[in-house]
């Protein structure tokens, strides 16, 4: 009888010890999970705070260096890009710093075109990343419509191409526009441009790589053929330099001299079906 009592007592003792160990281990796991969770939450909040501060710094810089109305700019450089497109590099005439702009925004110009009753206002997208010493716009000279060749070409674009030269002074409003990429928070992006529509998304792409995003970045650029393919070497250089940037050049009507795999990647049109196959 005594042996049975001792055995029962031993079983109870072992069970109690196991229960205590289970509680200790369980509590350790909870504490460990809590620590991991707390660290993750802390990292999340630190990231959020950094993004907010980055955005505030951008807004502050914009407020401090922006301007109202029109400001004088000097054309420092005029560079033909091909395909009827010309880039104009603009430096502030007063040499004051330029405000940061959101990649994708545009500039507004006031042009004194001869034989016009009033000044001509035109808007053109910024085609380079935000920099403090110059702005760049890339403008395509708009020809007459194909179905009406006797019509005059684009008024503003023709004036830029034919009359604006290096050293000229032009009136420019501060960057504006709601079509832009938020670059304060890295995330995967797909950028799409066609023809001269390359300019705003090129600004986005250049700012993304400058900020050294490591997220996946796809860039689709569609044109008819090699004759309209602008900034060809520059796009190729970006794709080769940054392994997270995937550039796909799409020709809808390639010429005989256009070589697939060399001049362009895909024959067709940029659209949903292409995205399904590539992405």
Helix content: 25-40%
Distance between the termini: 78 Å
Q: What is the total number of structural domains? A: 3
- The assembly state of the depicted protein chains is single chain
Structural class: alpha/beta
Shape: globular
- Uncertain stretches: 1-14
Please give the CATH class of the largest domain.
Mainly Beta
Radius of gyration using CA atoms only: 30 Å
Biggest sheet, in brief?
Answer: 6 strands, antiparallel
CATH topology of the largest domain: Elongation Factor Tu (Ef-tu), domain 3
Strand content: 15-25%
Helix and strand run: HEEEEEHEEHEHEEH
Number of helices: 5
Summary of the model, kept short:
The chain is an alpha/beta fold. The protein contains five helices and ten strands, in the order αβββββαββαβαββα.
Report what the structure shows.
This protein is α/β, with parallel strands linked by helices. It has three domains: 1-65; 70-173, Beta Barrel (Elongation Factor Tu (Ef-tu), domain 3); 189-278, Nucleotide-binding domain of ferredoxin-NADP reductase (FNR) module (Rossmann fold, 3-Layer(aba) Sandwich). Helices cover 37% and strands 24% of the residues. It has five helices and ten strands. It has helices at residues 2-65, 155-163, 198-210, 232-241, 272-278, and strands at residues 70-82, 85-92, 106-111, 120-125, 135-140, 169-173, 189-194, 217-223, 245-251, 266-267. The chain has a six-stranded antiparallel sheet, covered by helices on one side. The chain is globular, with a radius of gyration of 30 Å. 21% of the residues are buried. The model is unreliable at 1-14 (pLDDT under 50).
């Amino acid at each position: 009888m005594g042996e049975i009592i001792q055995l029962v007592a031993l079983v109870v003792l072992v069970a109690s010890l196991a229960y205590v160990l289970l509680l200790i281990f369980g509590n350790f796991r909870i504490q460990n999970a809590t620590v991991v969770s707390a660290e993750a939450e802390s990292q999340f909040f630190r990231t959020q705070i950094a993004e907010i501060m980055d955005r505030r710094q951008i807004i502050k810089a914009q407020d401090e260096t922006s301007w109202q109305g029109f400001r004088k700019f000097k054309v420092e450089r005029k560079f033909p890009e091909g395909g009827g497109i010309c880039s104009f590099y603009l430096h502030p005439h007063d040499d004051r710093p330029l405000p940061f702009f959101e990649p994708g925004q545009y500039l507004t110009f006031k042009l004194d075109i001869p034989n016009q009753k009033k000044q001509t206002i035109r808007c053109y997208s910024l085609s380079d990343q935000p920099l403090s010493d110059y702005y760049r716009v890339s403008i395509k000279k708009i020809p007459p419509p194909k179905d009406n060749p006797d019509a005059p070409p684009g008024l503003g674009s023709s004036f830029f191409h034919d009359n604006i030269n290096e050293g000229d002074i032009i009136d420019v409003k501060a960057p504006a526009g709601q079509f832009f990429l938020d670059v304060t928070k890295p995330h995967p992006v797909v950028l799409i441009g066609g023809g001269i529509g390359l300019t705003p998304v090129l600004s986005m792409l250049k700012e993304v790589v400058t900020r050294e995003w490591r997220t996946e970045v796809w860039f689709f650029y569609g044109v008819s053929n090699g004759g309209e393919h602008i900034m060809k070497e520059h796009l190729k250089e970006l794709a080769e330099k940054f392994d997270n940037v995937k550039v796909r050049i799409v020709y809808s009507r390639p010429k005989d001299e256009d070589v697939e795999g060399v001049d362009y990647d895909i024959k067709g049109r940029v659209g949903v079906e292409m995205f399904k196959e590539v992405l």
